[in-house]
């Protein structure tokens, strides 16, 4: 038997419960991972509440990202029993989940974990850095000298996006609602911080860029605030929306007829493509080995029984970086 987190109704963190279930058995193209650490993501909070990009099928499990050791394989492939691995978001949580002591996952959503990387870091690194690489470099074409405006910058994805920008020689501009987290963002690698609740976003960005605007926007919020992001974008720039934290409709600001590209991005476009995932893995792996990439872990919760508390903390927006649970 294995302990697994499940929920039978949509709602706040209190709907989560830990249950005993049969040990999973892998089929062809699947692996079982003995889970050492679980990385929490905002997508899982939205999936639990029923506000995610796909409908939640109840009863359901949770979790996209973990690290651990392969304990069973369903068919011969790249991985063998005993391998250290990380699981990345390459599946639907209606089909697979990793909030468990042992997790059944598709082999295509597994990447090798270097011996030098801890279990906690192995559960915290892939989701944010794959999102940052895929949205900014693989599809966005971010290059040296470009300015990139990053919203929700204190999130794990925001911090990773700043590191990706620095690795390619771009200039990351972070946003935060207040200046209270400005020094933390500067210490984490932001070249500039804009406190959107205290100063005018567009004016400040134009000041930073000499009136030109940013070449790239990497936005996790969406909603009506996109209008200001577009006004802060240079002619021909790219506004990439990779999250829907506002929960409000996003309308292209056609009244100003901005000369820019506005696009959406989800990680699945890359993690479901074996060749693109391979390139991303090489990019992130090289960053880990060089020391350019190191996940910022805000807090580690011990035991699956802490999952309700961990999700409440996830929704508090008090964290700077990744939240990890060790089963």
Automatic annotation (TrEMBL):
The keyword Oxidoreductase applies. CDD domains: MDR2 (cd08268). One of its GO terms (molecular function) is oxidoreductase activity, acting on NAD(P)H. The keyword Repressor does not apply. InterPro entries: ADH-like_C, ADH-like_N, ER, GroES-like_sf, NAD(P)-bd_dom_sf. SMART domains: PKS_ER. Keywords: NADP, Oxidoreductase. Residues 11-325 form the Enoyl reductase (ER) domain. This is NADPH:quinone reductase-like Zn-dependent oxidoreductase. It comes from Actinomycetospora corticicola.
């Amino acid at each position: 038997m294995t302990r697994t987190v499940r929920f039978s109704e949509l709602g706040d963190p209190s709907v989560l419960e830990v249950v005993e279930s049969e040990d999973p058995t892998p089929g062809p193209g699947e692996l079982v991972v003995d889970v050492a650490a679980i990385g929490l993501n905002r997508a899982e909070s939205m999936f639990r509440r029923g506000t995610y990009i796909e409908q939640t099928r109840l009863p359901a499990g949770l979790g996209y990202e973990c690290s651990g050791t392969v304990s069973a394989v369903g068919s011969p492939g790249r991985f063998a029993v005993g391998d250290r691995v990380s699981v990345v978001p390459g599946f639907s949580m209606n089909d697979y989940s990793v909030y468990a002591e042992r997790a059944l996952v598709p082999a295509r959503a597994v990447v090798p974990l270097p011996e030098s990387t801890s279990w906690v870091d192995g559960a915290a690194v892939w989701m944010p850095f794959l999102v940052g690489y895929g949205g900014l470099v693989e599809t966005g074409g971010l290059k040296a000298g470009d300015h990139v405006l990053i919203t929700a910058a204190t999130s794990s994805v925001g911090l990773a996006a700043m590191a990706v920008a620095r690795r390619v020689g771009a200039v990351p501009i972070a946003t935060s609602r207040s200046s209270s987290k400005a020094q933390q963002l500067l210490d984490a690698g932001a070249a500039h911080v804009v406190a959107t609740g205290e100063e005018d976003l567009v004016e400040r960005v134009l000041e930073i860029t000499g009136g030109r605007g940013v070449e790239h926007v990497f936005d996790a919020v969406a909603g009506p605030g996109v209008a200001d992001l577009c006004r802060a974008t240079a002619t021909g720039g790219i506004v990439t929306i990779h999250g829907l934290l506002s929960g409000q409709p996003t309308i292209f600001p056609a009244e100003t007829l901005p000369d820019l590209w506005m696009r959406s991005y989800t990680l699945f476009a890359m993690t479901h493509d074996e060749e693109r995932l391979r390139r991303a893995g090489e990019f992130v792996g090289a960053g880990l080995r060089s020391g350019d990439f190191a996940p910022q872990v805000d807090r580690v919760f011990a035991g699956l029984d802490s999952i309700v508390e961990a999700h409440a903390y996830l929704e508090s927006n008090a964290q700077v970086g990744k939240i990890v649970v060790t089963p």
